[in-house]
Specification:
34% helix; 530 residues; four-stranded mixed sheet; five-stranded antiparallel sheet; Beta-lactamase; 22 strands
């Protein structure tokens, strides 16, 4: 082989090896760079990582889960002296001196002094900051739910899950946490994402504070009268997600969202009967009726609350609604017939889910026509018997009235924002309203509802300011003299901005118990919505 040929072979070999090396480096650094970088990172961080879950926010992007940052400790007993181990055992931080690595120990006021006293004395203890999803300041907990199980957390579980992780502690070459170093990978790289609701955090807080004082069991729903957006939805008794186990043992069912459960409506159902009567032109507001304190239907006697006083006597239809006269509304029910009553109940959205996005929402109960008989007319005309509606349906019913007879669907989901920043607006809020009553009928119903709060059973609902309102009380008899208390109303009367449904389970009189709750809510939120 000649000299030149040997040189060419050598150069070719060098070039070939160089190309192979370049290709290998390209594969390691470019093609598999992320994989090897992540592997190297995991060697340093060990298992101290948690998946980032999308948040749940109010209409202004403020968190509703009460999430916060808290201090936690990682203890490596192999690095501790016997005295240090005994100190931790004595203070119930370690179970025994034989414990292996212990992670995610909350730093509490009770143990913080002991833990912090050891930080600079041993490499066996690291304290780091960690994100906690649920906290004591959480609001709308029945709406939010808890991870993957109820509420929005369940409805959007697959969307809220992600492969993004936060890493908290860096380990050394021996796999031990490095003292004084913590890391939250991606924490500053990923913008807030998740599900944004129509809930207004300020209004929600006001409603919950009032309920804590006034309602042991029940629900309140506040809806924007123009857009149908739910501004607040709360249920009592309440619960907090961060100590869920405590509530599971309670007998008063604190985990149930009573805003979407079905209950007997009582006299708020008279809004349906009045709407049907006016729409079918079977009577007008100025028509005069007579109440002698009771009505007899199919052998059953139904008393008006005026029975002991001998009845209301003569009164107009408007006054019959204002004073919630059972006798007159049973007379109207007889004129309408059971089929028309049930038809108008369905027209106003009762008996089917409002589809606001909560998996727990119930249909309520508007029975099939062949399930109701002549003798039942007395009951269903005043919202008793087989009739069942949810507090959110009650609000939707009134929402239709204040929107001139157009059935407007309540909206809870405003938009979703994925981890890449892509936004999808809820299309339900842009659907066209369905006209179910004439504008004339809706205006007359409003006139009667405003009479109810001016001089009738709803007078205790009037706010402190000079603005007038409209609304209807309900006292739904259940059994053994137990009644649910209801009030549904809107504010202000001339140009309604909010519709509010108040339900108090086993609360008694709607005029005495539920109406004042409406009043206090309006007193406190009027400056926000005006």
């Amino acid at each position: 082989m000649g000299k030149n040929k040997r040189i060419y072979v050598l150069l070719f070999s060098i070039i070939t090896l160089s190309m192979m090396l370049i290709l290998r480096l390209f594969y390691i650094q470019i093609a598999q760079g992320d994989f090897f970088a992540q592997s190297a990172f995991l060697q340093k961080t060990g298992d101290m990582a948690e998946k980032v879950r999308g948040g749940i926010y109010d209409t202004n992007g403020e968190s509703l889960t009460g999430n916060y940052t808290a201090s936690f400790a990682v203890i490596s007993p192999n690095w501790l002296s016997l005295e240090e181990k005994q100190l931790l055992v004595e203070n119930n931080i370690l179970d025994s001196i034989e414990d292996s690595n212990v992670e995610n120990i909350p730093v509490t006021p009770e143990n913080s002094k002991i833990l912090y006293s050891l930080i600079n004395k041993t490499p066996g203890l690291v304290i780091y900051e960690k994100d906690v999803r649920y906290g004591p300041e959480a609001l709308a907990t029945h709406v939010v739910g808890f991870q993957g199980q109820t509420g929005i957390e369940k409805a959007f579980n697959s969307f809220l899950e992600s492969n993004i992780k936060n890493y908290y502690v860096i380990n050394d070459g021996l796999g031990q946490p490095i003292v004084g170093i913590s890391l939250a990978q991606n924490k500053n790289k990923v913008k807030p994402w998740g599900v944004k609701l129509t809930i207004d955090k300020d209004i929600q807080k006001i409603v919950e504070d009032i309920m804590d004082k006034r309602i042991e069991a029940g629900a309140v729903v506040v809806i924007n009268a123009k857009s149908g957006e739910i501004l607040a939805m709360a249920s009592r008794p309440n619960y907090k997600q961060f100590k869920l186990d405590e509530y599971l043992k309670q007998e008063n069912a604190p985990l149930i969202n009573r805003a979407v459960e079905s209950y007997t409506p009582g006299s708020i159902f008279k809004i349906v009967v009045l709407s049907a009567t006016l729409e079918e032109k079977l009577a007008d507001l100025d028509d005069v009726f007579f109440c002698n304190g009771f009505e007899k239907v199919g052998g059953n006697i139904f008393k008006c609350y005026s029975y002991e006083d001998g009845g209301h006597g003569e009164l107009t239809l408007k006054d019959a609604l204002a004073y919630s006269c059972n006798s007159v509304f049973i007379q109207l029910g007889m004129r309408l017939g059971k089929d028309k009553i049930l038809e108008y109940a369905r027209r106003l959205g009762l008996g089917e889910k409002t589809d606001i996005g909560l998996p727990e929402e119930k249909d309520g109960n508007i029975p099939l026509n062949d399930e109701v008989f002549y003798q039942d007319i007395g009951n269903i005309s005043i919202g008793q018997g087989p009739i069942g509606i949810t507090p959110v349906q009650a609000a939707q019913m009134l929402l239709t009235i204040v929107n001139d007879g157009a059935l407007k669907k309540p909206v809870l989901i405003k938009e979703t924002i994925d981890s890449m920043g892509n936004t999808q607006v809820n299309l339900i809020s842009h659907t066209e309203d369905k006209k179910v009553l004439s504008t004339e009928t809706a205006q007359k119903v409003k006139e009667a509802l405003e009479a109810a709060t001016e001089y009738g059973t709803g007078i205790r609902a009037n706010p402190q300011n000079s603005q007038t309102i409209g609304g209807k009380t309900g006292t739904a008899e259940i059994e053994n003299a137990i009644s649910h208390a209801w009030f549904v109303g809107y504010y202000p009367a001339d140009k309604p901005k909010v519709v509010i449904s108040v339900f108090v389970e086993h609360g008694g009189s709607g005029s005495v118990v539920a109406a004042p709750v409406f009043k206090e809510i309006i007193n406190q939120i009027s400056t926000i919505i005006n």
